[in-house]
Amino acid sequence: MTSNRAPLIELKAISKGFPGVQALDGVSLKVYPGEIHALIGENGAGKSTLMNILAGELQPDSGEIIFEGHPVRIPHPNVSQQLGISVVYQELALSPNLTVAENISLNTVRNTFSLQFVNRRAFATKAKDVLSQLGMADLNLRQPVGELTVAQQQMVEIGKAISTDVKLLILDEPNSALTDEETDHLFAVLRDLRAAGVAIIYISHRLEEVLSLSDRITVLRDGQWVETMPAENATVDKLIARMVGREVDGLFRAQAPSVVREQVSFAVKHLSSADLLRDLSFHIRAGEVVGVAGLPGAGKDELVECCFGLRSYTGDIEIKGQPVRLNQPDQAIKHGLALIPADRRGTGAMLVLSVQDNIVAANLGRVSQAGLLQRPAIRAVGEDYVKQLDIRVSSLTQTMDTLSGGNQQKVILARGLATNPAVLILHEPTRGIDVGAKAEIYAILQDLAADGAAILIVSSELPELIGQCDRILVMYQGTFTGEFDRNDAAEEPILACAMGQGVHLETA
């Protein structure tokens, strides 16, 4: 399909290194007008580095970029945008205090160098057109972006990217926070852009979507090009094998059922919060893995916040049979709870601090003496968890912002484990990480359960919950509509409960 056309952009032998890491090693890639080209690989494969080079955020150490037949340098993001390259990052780059219309128009303003008054009417007109294209015409243009849901913010970010004369659109996990309906809208827009001649680089770990959406697929591994193939010639198993260099068997399925103890480690009784949660009761036994499923807005996020002292609530919480009142996260930690938050970069990782400092941050008493931090103790704890969880770093002093997503997630998990928790709460634990890292994290959770930890997984990924959990609770509009044990958990009845179309509260 591409042999008779010139590529819009061609990368020739691109290399980029960081201290202790060769992020890209001679990667070559061609992307043609009017194609959706998927770029896949494990975290750390080099996808983000390549994207940042095209965005003008990083400079290659060697290699050449050919754009529309001409060699180009992209020394900073303004040049990238002037070429017609727009990037939608997985971590949103919006201004929460500005309105929807203002955020969508940011790229236009950035490329205007003359001194002039802001034309808010033009902003609103452009934003309305873009949002209509995205199927979001009913969004309030004057609403501050900080008041929107994560899914709505994601669509605004995409709207901002396509608001200019885009020739190459790069998307990194653009639908990680979107519902199925919103994802369908997004994919329809991408296909329309492809039909209009826009070249699209689509980065995703959702391999089924990659196969259905893309025209060609390029696989990177360890900073090197592995293969470029037509999507019609690919399968999920083939892509996984290319990505990780090995077969990943039974990725979502726990190797064996948990050995559940009699002791109830965590219990919630008649918990309510404002109008968002209504009379929720459940328990988790030692060694048990319990999941919570539900669509966006069902109350999953608010439940996590109540359980970790981040949101006020009425009702009772018990840990190992003892009533506790959780008004602050430090109280939750003191009582034996650990949280792995959904927003890895926003609220989970302290990006400018080192790996070892992130690991000990929630339990400084363990590495202090007379109120003073002890660097040898910090290093010892860091070394212990880096080895236990197989965290791939060049050194313990490497900053978090230089790690891949999967390794960042394992550092955040290590921080929780360093507090010696009795109860581990994981909120979207594998969002935006590759299949290999998912398999590693699942194995870690299975080992923790085998040692007697009580684990609560709150996730939008039904295969993840069905494969890993002994029981799954389903939420709809702030209450439980379903409870399934390992033997009767299946996607169709769980989705029916999540959509308010059924009730399944019989327990085994």
Key features of this structure:
single chain; 508 residues; alpha/beta; Rossmann fold; six-stranded mixed β-sheet; 33% helix; 25% strand; globular
Estimate the strand proportion: 15-25%
CATH C-level of the largest domain:
Alpha Beta
* CATH topology category name of the largest domain: Rossmann fold
| Largest sheet report | 6 strands, mixed
In whole angstroms, the N-to-C terminal distance is 55 Å
Number of strands: 22
What structural class results from the helix and strand content?
alpha/beta
CATH superfamily of the largest domain: P-loop containing nucleotide triphosphate hydrolases
**Uncertain ranges:** none
Q: Architecture of the largest domain, CATH level 2?
A: 3-Layer(aba) Sandwich
Mean pLDDT, all residues: 87
What share of residues is helical? Answer: 25-40%
In terms of topology, how is this protein built?
Layout: E1 9-18, E2 21-31, E3 36-40, H1 47-54, E4 62-67, E5 70-72, H2 77-83, E6 85-88, H3 100-104, H4 106-110, H5 120-133, H6 150-162, E7 168-172, H7 180-195, E8 199-203, H8 207-213, E9 216-221, E10 224-230, H9 236-244, E11 264-273, E12 277-285, E13 289-293, H10 300-307, E14 314-319, E15 322-324, H11 329-334, E16 337-340, H12 344-348, H13 355-360, E17 368-369, E18 372-373, H14 375-388, H15 405-417, E19 423-427, H16 435-450, E20 454-458, H17 462-468, E21 471-476, E22 479-485, H18 491-498
Parallel strand pairs: 3-8, 3-9, 6-7, 7-8, 13-20, 13-21, 16-19, 19-20
Antiparallel strand pairs: 1-2, 1-4, 4-5, 9-10, 11-12, 11-14, 14-15, 17-18, 21-22
